[in-house]
Every structure is written in structure tokens, then in C-alpha cells.
Amino acid sequence: MSDSNQPSSALAADTPGLSAADRLRRIHPLVATAAIAVTAVSVIAAVQFLAPQSARSAADRGAVAPVSRAVPAHAPAPAPIAVCADCGEVVNIRPSRQEGSGSGLGAVAGGVLGGVLGHQVGAGRGKEAMTVVGAVGGAFAGNEVEKQAKAQTLYLVDIRMADGSARTITETAPPNVPIGAKVRVSGNTIALR
């Protein structure tokens, strides 16, 4: 085995006249070539990135031959196509659950029921504590039950209008239009065309 401080015989052979330390510090020709190539590509990319947008788009326009349509002089210009402002196509129907609101009645009823049930547990001071805990827990549970009872399912109907815009109409009942149907929208109502 050779000492790691000693240069290899191949390196010593290709550079006569250099000391061993100088030979070890030299950059290999392949590494130098790769560094030059990476630098050149980076410079080209930076120039492309920093070039003004108008100069790039002008170069792009020059690269593609323009296509022109010959319109006979005697032909009248086509009439603009009228777009129905209220017309569209149903693209999606999504059910959405809307949580109900609590009026406080569920909380009061739940609190009373929880207090009565909590009073049945324990003895002495524990009975009083369980009554309070039961009342608080019952009030919370009663409020949540009331919200769930008042919740409703809404149907969101996504419509792509003829002018390209998008609208979403909210229905309280399942809509009677299928996806893909041509419809007319009037306010918040949908009718088949």
C-alpha cells in the first residue's frame, strides 16, 4: 500500500517539473471542462430570464409564421353571435349540510334533565357536585341535539353560463335537473330550457 501523502505514479508521470504538492492541487481537465460548461449554461439561462418580456415575445412571434385568412372583399362580415345572458349548463350538484342554530330551549331542557340525573348519583357534597356537573353537561348536550335537529341539507348547483362565467345556485330540495342539462337561470331559480 502506498502512503496517502504520496502522489500516484500516473499523476507524477503526466506533469514533469512540478512538485508533488503542486500536482495534487491541480484541477483535473474533466472537472475544469464541466465547470466551464455549467457556467456557460447558467449565463445563458440568466440572460434568457432577465431579457425583457417584450423582446422575448417579439422573438417568439418572429419564429412562427403568421397565418392569415383571406376574406373576399365582397363577403359581408359575419353577424356577432348573441349570447343568452341567463342560459347555462349544469356542471355539478353538491349536497351540503348546514348546521342548525340553537335557540336555548335545548340547553335549558338538557340542563334540567342533566341536573335531575346528576342528583341521582352520589351522597352529601358529591351529590351536589354531580347535580352541577349533570346540569352543565346536559345543557351542552341539549344545545347540540337541538342544532342537529334543526340542521338541513342544501344542494349547491354549479352552472357554467353561456358567457363563460360560473354561478352556484342553492336549493333546499334536491334539484329536478340532471348534470349536463341546459338551463335558464332567473334570480335564484333554475328552469330547463
Key descriptive features of the protein:
five-stranded antiparallel sheet, flat
Produce the secondary structure layout.
Elements: H1 9-14, H2 20-25, H3 29-50, H4 53-63, E1 87-98, H5 105-119, H6 125-150, E2 152-161, E3 166-171, E4 182-186, E5 189-192
Antiparallel strand pairs: 1-2, 1-4, 2-3, 4-5
Helix pairs in contact: 5-6
Describe the structure.
This protein has 193 residues and is α+β, with helices and mostly antiparallel strands. Helix content is 45%, strand content 19%. It has helices at residues 9-14, 20-25, 29-50, 53-63, 105-119, 125-150; strands at 87-98, 152-161, 166-171, 182-186, 189-192. It has a 5-stranded antiparallel beta sheet with strand order 3-2-1-4-5, with no helix packed on it. A hairpin with a 2-residue loop joins strand 4 (182-186) and strand 5 (189-192). Helix 5 packs antiparallel against helix 6. The radius of gyration is 40 Å and the shape is flat.
